[in-house]
Amino acid sequence: xxxxxxxxxxxxxxxxxxxxxxxxxxxxxxLASVAAVALPVxxxxxxxxxxxxxxxxxxxxxxxxxxxxxxxxxxAGLVVGALPLGLAAWSVWMQ
Length: 95
Known about the structure:
- This protein is mainly alpha-helical.
- It is built from three helices and no strands.
């Protein structure tokens, strides 16, 4: 039991960051690509912009997750970034 607690304390934050980078970064990139459709440009340009933006957002999210001091801050940063993108994506979905 004691070794399980030690293992969780040593590997838990790293595993949390990996999950945040993989899935949280993907969710943030997906929201950014959908939110780009709300831009005041033609639909085809907005889709292309969203696709290109998603690569930059995903790379930035992965860098952010491993650059901050704790896994909690990594998750909090992803949530804070997802809020405005989620609102913009929601306005696209409700059209």
